[in-house]
């Protein structure tokens, strides 16, 4: 990905039924710092920005009081519009919230959420779109690259102990492991 890094895209196509899936993995290691990317969506053209959401990335839209935890939707390489459609479908078409046990007020709230996501995609509602990836392997296209994008803010931060724990980094031994193996033999 230009101005980012190498990624691995694994695509599967079923010749029998036509079902297609893809999953994206970072081509590199976990970055030394986490990354928080904030885009102020102000124009419908923002929907065409490429986005790489890694499996360790969470998504937040404060105007909708919405947060999607890491691991949900897996790794994706799509456009901002594509990711918003996936989020809308995940929430609005969820069988656990629309089945026999759903209430009319819950259905109305979910439909309202879907309408607001659609308004953002159509450019009728401004919003902030936040990607928070403690592994630092997510990307949102800067359409002004290599110049600075006035609506895009990228912050790098030190991960917390809990974030390192979730990524499996706290107990990972990266120095002196070779000598540890020879002494056990």
Short description:
It is built from five helices and ten strands, in the order E-E-E-E-E-E-E-H-H-H-E-E-E-H-H. The chain is α+β, with helices and mostly antiparallel strands and 185 residues long.
- Protein structure class: alpha+beta
Indicate the percent of residues in helices. Answer: 25-40%
Query: How many individual helices?
Result: 5
Using DSSP, what is the number of strands? 10
Q: Work out the oligomeric state of the chains in this entry.
A: single chain
Contiguous low-pLDDT stretches (5 residues minimum) are none
Shape: globular
How confident is the prediction overall: mean pLDDT?
86
Distance between the termini: 44 Å
Query: Could you give the order of the helices and strands?
Result: EEEEEEEHHHEEEHH
Strand percentage lies at 25-35%
Calculate Rg over CA atoms. 19 Å
| Strand line-up across the major sheet | 6-5-8-3-10
Major beta-sheet overview: 5 strands, antiparallel
Walkthrough of the structure:
Pfam families: jr-ZPR1, Zn_ribbon_ZPR1. Residues 1-142 form the Zinc finger ZPR1-type domain. A hairpin with a 6-residue loop joins strand 1 and strand 2. This protein has 185 residues and is α+β, with helices and mostly antiparallel strands. The mean pLDDT is 86. The strands form three sheets. It has a five-stranded antiparallel sheet with strand order 6-5-8-3-10, with no helix packed on it. Helix content is 27%, strand content 28%.
């Amino acid at each position: 990905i230009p101005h980012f890094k190498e990624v691995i895209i694994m695509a599967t196509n079923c010749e029998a039924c036509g079902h297609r899936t893809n999953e994206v993995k970072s081509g590199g290691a976990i970055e030394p710092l986490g990354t928080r990317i904030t885009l102020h969506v102000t124009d419908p053209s923002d929907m065409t920005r490429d986005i790489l959401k890694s499996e360790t990335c969470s998504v937040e839209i404060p105007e909708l009081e919405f947060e999607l935890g890491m691991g949900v939707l897996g790794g994706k390489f799509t456009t901002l519009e594509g990711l918003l459609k996936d989020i809308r479908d995940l929430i609005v078409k969820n069988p656990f919230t629309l089945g026999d046990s759903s209430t009319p007020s819950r259905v109305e709230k979910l439909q309202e959420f879907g309408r607001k996501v659609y308004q953002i995609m159509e450019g009728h509602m401004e919003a902030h779109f936040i990607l928070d990836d403690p592994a630092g392997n997510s990307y949102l296209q800067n359409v002004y690259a290599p110049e600075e994008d006035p609506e895009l803010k990228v912050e790098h931060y030190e991960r917390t102990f809990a974030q390192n724990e979730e990524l499996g980094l706290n107990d990972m031994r990266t120095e002196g492991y070779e000598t540890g193996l020879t002494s056990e033999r």
